[in-house]
Design a protein that fits this description.
126 residues, mainly beta, seven-stranded mixed β-sheet, 0% helix
């Protein structure tokens, strides 16, 4: 299984970035996909996740710190999950990781994720 994250970069506060994660080697639609982030000296932080059900489509969940600014989406035909980040703040500076989980509950816990991407750096300057 491989998760390849891309799209990181540097932006000024108030700007936007779009992260993308391409997955291979797994039955993508069966996994909840998520984005986490981490800064040096801090614990890894859950950002958002998106589940999938053939009956209800994608259900999305967000950390309070990004709610209303970030949007997670997935394309099961392309095996990709994206994170659209708007109105970025310096506090959003971090390495962002995509992850895949076969679990169905407590999906804010990184320990429940089976696979991780390599991370992409987002830097927001004030």
């Amino acid at each position: 299984v491989q998760l390849q994250a891309s799209g990181g970069g540097s932006v000024q506060a108030g700007g936007s970035l779009r992260l993308s994660c391409a997955a291979s080697g797994l039955t993508f639609s069966m996994y909840t996909m998520a984005w986490f982030r981490q800064t040096p000296g801090k614990e890894r932080e859950w950002v958002a996740n998106i589940r999938w059900s053939r009956w209800s489509g994608g259900a999305t969940y967000y950390a309070d710190s990004v709610k209303g600014r970030f949007t997670i989406s997935r394309d099961n035909a392309k095996n990709t999950v994206d994170l659209q980040m708007n109105n970025l703040e310096p506090e959003d500076t971090a390495v962002y990781y995509c992850a895949a989980s076969g679990a169905s509950t407590r999906l804010w816990e990184g320990a429940l994720y089976d696979y991780w991407g390599q991370g992409t750096l987002v830097t927001v300057s004030s």
